[in-house]
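Workshop exercise sheet. Pairs work together: one partner reads the sequence aloud, the other fills in the structure field after running the prediction. Swap roles for the next sheet.
Pair: D.N. / O.F.
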Amino acid sequence: MPVTVFFRRAGVQDLSRIVALYLEDALGRTRESLNALSWDGYTKAFEAIDQDPQQLLVVGMVEDTLVATCQLTLIPCLTHQGGLRLQIGGVHVKKDYQGKTIGRQMMAWALEYGQEKGALFAQLTTHKSPTDAKRFYETLGFEATHVGMKRFFSKTVRTS
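Structure field:
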């Protein structure tokens, strides 16, 4: 059953609830933490994102409950004749609210934001393991046009 969500720019007061949302996810549990050592990194990252006019950290709210988040980045590029692209990342919907069209509403909001800012296209990556996510993005018109790769610089994860 669909739920109506209000999307807005995230504030520092949302940070602990955003990280808690990341921790609901199987992948998030392997790389996120609410311990004090990690908190400094989250705070610095939030401040950098919040101060960058090309970045927007979004939260989806159902009344007073934070139910979704994503990070939008506008990337100017020399390809596509100097075009602008919208990178969508950090997409998460609270477990109790999945299957209620919140992800679809958030993606529609994000795509509209990108179009309003003049982006030529939106791009995102999704981890290979949750195949439902790939199918979901395909229903929104996304195509697997490239093969993404990552190289991690450090295996150190703050866990305590």
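Discussion prompt: The longest helix spans residues 36-51. What would you look at next?
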